[in-house]
Write a structure and sequence with these properties.
370 residues, mainly alpha, 9 strands, 49% helix
Length: 370
């Protein structure tokens, strides 16, 4: 069992990313031995503005969000894109009694003017403020929850183009906790999209046509392509401009080049085709299967999935403990039971994680945990 001071420190760094304050230290002995005293301190700390640090840290680590100024016009806007995702999560937990379903489907956004421009919305003059940004409602046919926001989309894009592979890999790994098996022999990657100006769907089809690629990419790209309705900075789109090489010389078959040897290119209009398919990895996950019309439908699929709920709870456990969950099966099971019974309430999940044996104790004995 952790001492009161040790538990206070663990709790403070989790929720505030800072040292305990005087009140928490004064109640240290009580929180280690009295659940109601512990709950009182958790509630107090979550109501404190410093709790946004913990919420922001979690969502950035969970989805591996980055400030990708290569995909977004400026570093400041890239920072605001990430912050808009972090604020959304913080708002759901600390201000809205939010649920996992809302995390993946809600159309509330907390944004600055530059992100409003990307999202194609106007911030009303009387908009409610939260953490220095404005609360708006997005078009539910275009956006659903945290995955369809610029913070996530730009984190897995490159300058001037999106990446079905990186996006699909992130969703498999971070949202579904599913590891894609890598074949023994991996063919050198070919950047089809950059070389030939392929659309997102053409890029996916090119990967799937090569068996050595399709063995992995079928599980990644067909999920990532559901985000083809967004540009690399997260702007919604139905068409976009692609850069392709000029037609080859009809006699020689060679592509025309500039003096420096680079290809002469032209711009062509491409149609966004966000329809994808979720292929199950194994029999255990066979329920996760079927056509996905777009990222909004994918987000609803995630919201309804027990696999995602368990993955999310485990992500919070790993974040809180700062390690993998090798010997924590009993605690994970208990946390999941409470999370499920609460209707997948986000704050209740935090209570369950903090009140678990894995968090309250110094370290689990591998022999006792098995």
């Amino acid at each position: 069992q952790l001492s009161g001071v040790e538990l206070a420190s663990r709790l403070s760094f989790l929720l505030w990313n800072s040292i305990p304050d005087d009140e928490l230290l004064q109640n240290a002995s009580q929180i280690a031995n009295n659940q109601q005293a512990l709950r009182t301190q958790i509630d107090r700390m979550l109501e404190d503005p410093r709790a946004r640090n913990g919420m922001h840290n979690f969502v950035k680590q969970w989805l591996h969000l980055t400030i990708n100024s290569g995909a977004i016009s400026s570093t400041e806007t890239a920072e605001n894109a990430l912050l808009s995702s972090a604020r959304f999560f913080d708002y759901l937990v600390r201000d809205s009694d939010g649920t996992l379903d809302q995390l993946f489907t809600d159309t509330t956004a907390i944004i600055t003017p530059d992100i409003a421009e990307i999202l194609g919305v106007t911030i009303p003059n009387n908009a409610t403020q939260y953490d220095g940004a404005s609360i708006v409602t997005l078009d539910g046919s275009q956006r659903a929850g945290i995955l369809t926001r610029p913070g996530f989309i730009s984190s897995y894009s490159s300058p001037g183009r999106t990446s079905p592979t990186l996006t699909g890999s992130a969703i498999r790994d971070r949202v579904f906790c599913q590891e894609i098996p890598v074949p023994d022999s991996v063919q050198d990657a070919v950047d089809f999209m950059a070389a030939d100006g392929l659309s997102g769907r053409e890029f996916v089809n090119a990967h799937n046509a090569e068996k050595q690629c399709a063995d992995c990419h079928l599980y990644l790209d067909e999920i990532g392509i559901t985000f083809d309705g967004y540009s690399w900075d997260g702007e919604f789109r139905t068409t976009y401009i692609g850069e392709v090489r000029e037609d080859p010389d009809p006699e020689t078959g060679e592509y025309p080049r500039l003096e420096d040897g680079s290809f002469i290119t032209k711009l062509v209009q491409k149609v966004a085709e966000p329809e994808g398919y979720f292929y199950p990895l194994d029999a255990e996950n066979s329920a996760l299967k079927g056509r996905i019309d777009d990222a909004v439908i994918l987000s609803q699929m995630a919201a309804d999935s027990p696999v995602v709920a368990k993955c999310f709870a485990e992500s919070w456990m790993r974040f809180a403990l700062g390690r993998e969950l090798k010997y924590d099966a009993p605690s994970v099971e208990g946390v999941m039971q409470r999370f499920s019974a609460s209707g997948y309430n986000l704050k209740e999940l935090i209570y369950a994680v903090i009140e678990s044996d894995s968090f309250m104790k110094q370290g689990l004995n591998p022999e006792a945990a098995n």
